[in-house]
Structures are given as structure tokens and as C-alpha cells.
Task: structure prediction
Amino acid sequence: MKKLKHLPILLITAYIVYALGFNIMGLDFTNVTLQQIQFKTDDSLALGRDKSLLEGDSVSFVARVVAPPRVSPSTGDFRTMMRGTNSWTCYAQDTANGLFGGIVIRQGTRGPQTAIDLIDTGALIRVQGTVQEFGSTASSNFANCLTQLALDTAIGYTISILGNSPKRPDPKQVSITDFANGDYPNGGTINYIQGEKYEGMYVEIRNVTTSSGIGNRQPFSIVDENGNKMYMRDFSNWFSTSPSGDTLRPWTAPSIGTFVNSIRGVIINANNEGAFGNQLPYVIVPIYPNDLVLGNAPPVISSPLRSPGVPTPSDSVQVSATATDPGLSPLTLTSMQVYFRNNGGSFTSKNMPLITGNIYSAKMPPAPLGTLVEYYIRAEDNQGGIKLLPSDTAKSKLFYIVRTNDSMTVQDVQFCPNNGGRSAYEGYDVRGIEGIVTADTSDIPLFSYTSAAGTQSAPRRVYIQNGQGAYSGIWLAGGPTDALHKGDRVRVKGTVEENFSVTRINISTPSSITVLSTGNTQPTPEILSTAQIPNSAQDGEINVEKWESVYIRYNTPVKIDCINAAVGIACTTSEPLIDTTFRRNFGEPLISDGSNIDARLELQDGNHDYSNNWDGRGNIAPNILLTKNDIISYVEGILYFSFSNYKLTPRKNPDFGTVTPVGISNNTETANTYSLMQNYPNPFNPVTVINYNIPVSGNVSLKVFDMLGREVRSLVNNFVTSGSYSVNFDGSNLSSGIYFYKLEAEGFSGQKFVSTKRMVLIK
Result:
């Protein structure tokens, strides 16, 4: 049996003692949870790295069966349910039904050696096997892998039935956007961070419509009302479009445009399956006949409007919307209502009578100055079909703040109380918006880059900021803004827009801008951590969205962890990568401060000399070439959002602090105590930083050992003066796994200081 390379925490503590004496304790397998097998950090998933940290380990766990290989062994129905050519396939979940709690269990043959063919739906089982990544390659950490538990009949790994339940675990309620945004790869993106949490789990998606599929194994896709798309996977013999001896029933995929009340199934990563895998990794696999429920579509609500767009305390607000019922006759609307509340109170409803054509309308009463009014619209037909606008009111509602037009602020326009991230005044005219220009077109000019693959551009941008704090910055767009300069205090009026998820005010005429004064001091930048703007943040996430268009600074030294976080780049090189294939998001390093959480830096849009060489000109003066593992003493700029990522955009050279190139940096200031710090980042790939303090000059040894206690690298082995030190360790030529680093130093009065720490290399 393969010996475990990832020991439980208590054993790790004991192992440190023995490993450094070049002893090792080996176990055949260990008890784990499904979360321990499946869990990956958000920053890893943001880079597409989805391999289990326990890959290759022999483990044992307890789980509840969601879908067995056979229909119902307990009732004598031994027909094959899950297709797997000559293998048995089973899906199971942890008993708590938590995230990262599902897995595929697979036996390579249909033989009876492990009892996998005898388990039934709902059974509580203990499984012993090996963690594998289906579709994995030796050099890949990216999202082309399905984590599974492999049963090796030659070794004798087994399944034990601990008990039975009358039902399988309840499905998790999810949305397509948990797995993809848009129609990937046709302009959409994969949601690795959220999707991977559901891999192997039983889920349910409601109120979608069928669309075209890909071949026999993906007979249809499902699309929500916003055009987000994912595929159904034909893997159960109840849903086979390629009849075989195992097919359980005649089944034909629903025609395009069929409304789906609900579809339940297990989520798998199918990115390893050739051309199909390039369409979307995460697919839903219906298991049982009742997992697919077709029906008539609920009502459709569109074109919500309110009048006035910027309500004042004296205004009753008229809300109108278009509503139709596209279902089969004789479906008709039976009710149309608006629900509203003030300042987070209880909702009140008012009927919205039919006014003309398909337009329904009602008036909400006036509210005091400064009131946050939230509302949504509900339609119901005569067969119980219900539709809400917004569709998920738990995440998003329509809203506005009661103001007078001339009292509107940047904060009013930018504020959003939910994860929708959109302004309350989108599509409406606002006036009286004041602020100081923090970036003009000389800071962020029009950017355009053309390669053989096409042209990419970014617009020139002007920003103003009103004081300090959250929601205080906004983008001003339109030709008249070209005349503004950093330091101008202005008052503007214009139309609020959402430009690819960034809120801005579009100004059409020069008369819509009044320059109140010039040469004003810039606002003090908001001092944030990279952890507050993580690269994993999703569009509209409140804690990040509130800093959109605000002047911010990472004020502590940041390290470049990935020199180019473009699509398809592994971030494993220490050298800049030239954009030869026209990848999106080129020119964007990932940086981290002491929080060890990556944030994204946008180099291409600003007017400065700093480059990661994405265009091949990084070494041409006056460019200042940045490389992986460089340290920048600080970096600041304007927070932007594009291509599904928040990113800090430095404007000119002063937005960068001192750059310390790759290598070993020493600080000769006196260190008061001996100490060996935890490496960062950890886990790492392939470079990490080790810091240590030496209060007394003397001989110092810093070495790295593998799990067998073998020395793999000597980082320091010489006389060292007292001080604080930082050493880069590059594990490019090492395999993934657990390593230990050990510091030995001559201590006070001839005593020796010894300290050891553990680190994890992930490739």
C-alpha cells in the first residue's frame, strides 16, 4: 500500500520530532472527512487549481450514499444504474451535507470484491481507498480534474455498510451562476471558487430553460433568465440517449426551449473529456427519473421603471413593469404586486393593476429624507407559477435612497446594500454630484493593444472621490471629462450607467461639469490589506464592491506571487511571460502582503514605467521590469473591475514604492530573540519566503528536508551576523508534498537554538 503523505495534525506534531532525526512513521491509511479530501482555498481555486491535497493517499471515511451503482439491491433490483463502462460508480456525501462534502467512488471492475455493487441509496458506508484525480496529469494543477476515491480490488480496499436510511440526502439549492457566468467559452467565465465546493454533491437548480447540447453525452444544456448556462450530463441509465443493454427506459431529451421546473443531480468536473471539456468543467448529472421535472414557464417580468428616478421626501413613487405569461394556454396572470420596505423593516405589498397592454403599475408612498427603500415585484399565474423581480430576492432587491436632487452624493450613487453591486440609480439622471478628481486621462489614458489574435482595449478613465471611506469614488465617463485634471473639485450631472459591472456617470455635454476649484490636495488613500481585495472576490461582493473606484493603497510590502494571472498561465515561472497568444487579463500580477492572500494588480492601463513584460518591452528603457517574488514596499491606485476581477490600477510612477528584486534580502537591525517564522505563502508553488531572526552573531544552518528526513536543500550554512533575514526557497525541481525546514544557530552561552517548521508544496 502507498504510505500516507498527509498525516493528521497530531501525527504531524509527533513526526516533526522523528523526521529531523531521519526517522519516519508510516501508516497504510487514515480516517479523514470528505471535506479534508475536497477542500481547497479560494485563492488556489481562483487560479484554477483544484487537485486534492490528499491525492495519492490511502484514506478511510464515512459517508451517505446518494447514488449507488445498481438500482436497488435491497429490493432485488440489480440493474445497473450508473454507467461506467466496465466499472462500478457510486456517489456519496458526508453526513452533515456541508460544502466540499461530496465525492465519486469508483471501482475499476464490476466484480463483487468490495461490496460496492451491494450498497443502496441512503446507505451509511465506510470506504477505504485511494484519492485520485481523474484526468490529472503530472504537470497540471488546474481545473481539469475530478476528485474521486478509487477502490483497488487487487489491494483489497473495501466498503462496509454501517446502516441504511429510507432516503438519500436532500439536494442543495444552487444556481447556474454557482458554476458559470454567461455562456462559457463564448464570452462567459467559469466559477471555480464556488463550483468546486459542490463537486460530487447532490444539488437542485430551479426555473431554467433547455438549450442545445453537445453530442450524446450532453443531450441538452440549461439556461437561466440571464443567459447563464451549464450542461446536463448523460451518465445515469435512466437518462441514456445512447441505448445499451444497461438502459433502464426509453428516454428522449426535452426539446430546446422547454421550461424546467427543477433539475436535480450530482455535480462533476468533466473538463477532462476532450472537446466537450472545453465547454464547461461543471455539469449536472441527473440520477433518478424524478430528478428532471418539466413544466410550463412561470410569468415573465421585465422593464421595471420608477418615477421619479431620484425620489424626494414629497414624492409618491410610481413603479411599473411589463409582465406576460408565456406558458401554455390557458395560463393567465392572477396577481401582480410590489413589495416594499423602509430601512430594513417589514415588507408591505400593493397590488399593481393592469394599466395598458402588458404594463402593470402601482404607487409607493413618500418616505422621509435619507430613507433606504427596498422593493421587488411578484407575479403569479393561475397554475401557481410564480416569478420575482429580481429573481433571487435574498441576494438582491431594487432600491433607492430618498434625496433631493441637489443633495445627491457619490456615496448615494455607488451604495448597494446587497451582492447585486448595481447602483439604485442605473438608467436615471443625477445631478449635484461633487468630488475631487483622483485620476485624469493622463493617469489612465486610452489603452489599445493588437496582436495576431485581435485587439484589446481599455477606455480612458477619470475618477472623482468625495471624502473618505466606502463608496466614496466613482468613474466619470464621456468626452467632456477629458478636460479635467487631477486635483479639480467638480460638480457634475449625468446618467448613471453600469459599464461591464462598473458603476459610472456618463456626462454628455461640457455644461454638465462645473469646476469649483483647482489644485486641491488629493484624498488620503484608504489603507487596505490585499486580503480585503482578494483575487477570489466575486462581482458585487459587498465588502469589496464598496471600494470600487476608490483611491486605495497596500501600505505594507507586497510580494509578486504570480507575474501574469492571465487565462491559461500557470503562474509557476519566475520570469515574465510575453503575451504571444492574446490571453485575457494579461499584464496583471497577483500580489500579497502579510495577509498572504493574493490581490490583483493591473499594470497595462496606467501611465507608468512598470511592466511584467506582457508585451515583450519590459526590458526596454524606461520600463522597470517586475518579476515573480519581487517585493514592492507599497503600491496604490484606483480600484477597478474588469473581466470578472477586481484589480488595483496604479496611475503613474509615484504609485509604486521601492522594488526589491528577487533574491535574499537582509536586515542588519538587531534582533532581540531567536525565531523562525512560518513560510509564506503556505502552501506554495513553487517559491516561498522563510524569515528568521538571529540576536547573536554565529554559525547558522537553514536546511530543507523531505518526509523521509532526507536533506533536499541547504539554504544557509555559514557565519551570520545578528539581524533579521529573509530567504527565498524555490521548489521547482521538487515534487508536491510536505517538507520541513530546520534552523540551527549558536545561541547564548554556547547553547544551540533549533527550530523546525512544516511547509506544503503544491504543483
